[in-house]
Write a structure and sequence with these properties.
Layout: E1 13-19, H1 29-38, E2 47-53, E3 62-68, E4 73-74, E5 77-86, E6 89-99, E7 103-110, E8 113-120, E9 128-134, E10 139-140, E11 155-161, E12 172-173
Parallel strand pairs: 1-11
Antiparallel strand pairs: 2-3, 2-12, 3-5, 4-5, 5-6, 7-8, 7-11, 8-9, 9-10
């Protein structure tokens, strides 16, 4: 799968970003059940891309899902979901609409969890990068605030996951089970 690189915006330095394509095999059934519960899309086909990443250094991987479908995408992108393992199941800990991929897992942390850095582009706004921080319970989507905006000429370090070119014919189909 071709990798999608992030664009340069406001001289933000992305040279130290490692790009990782999404997994190609369907995740375990517990993840698929959690996705079905989080996405109410009975009348359409939903495809998704995912990566497993330990976001809170507990040696257990959280799962980042980038879901694609007409009810969850718009001109500014699609919806990002973050699931945390809880025993044999997974719980939704964040739902962030209108994101574009790849998603940067920053080396910086807030409340013990890696910050997420999200590019916004499309629609009527110019491209920009935003830091999404964990508040102890969820990732708080406070894009479009001065606190969240990545400053000009910042160097970002981390991994960019779901670094695929998104195509409506690829991705894993969310089955109705």
């Amino acid at each position: 799968m071709p990798k999608k690189k992030l664009p340069s915006v406001r001289e933000i330095n992305l040279e130290n970003i490692e790009y990782i394509s999404s997994a190609t095999e369907p995740p375990d059934p517990a993840i698929q059940a959690a996705i079905r519960q989080a996405i109410d899309a009975r009348a359409e086909t939903i495809r998704y891309y995912y990566n497993s990443v330990d976001l809170n250094s507990d040696r257990r991987s959280e799962v980042i899902i980038y879901a694609v479908g007409s009810s969850i995408c718009g001109s500014g992108g699609c919806t990002l979901y973050v699931f945390e393992p809880r025993g044999a199941t997974y719980s939704l800990i964040a739902k962030i609409p209108t994101t574009t991929n790849p998603i940067i897992i920053s080396d910086e942390k807030t409340n013990g969890w890696n910050d997420l850095i999200i590019l916004t582009e499309g629609g009527s706004l110019p491209p920009n990068y935003w830091r999404i921080r964990f508040d102890g319970n969820t990732y708080v989507d406070n894009r479009y605030t001065a606190e969240s905006e990545i400053p000009d000429r910042t160097t970002i370090t981390g991994k960019a996951v779901i670094a695929n070119t998104i195509d409506p014919k690829t991705g894993i189909v969310l089955e109705d089970n």
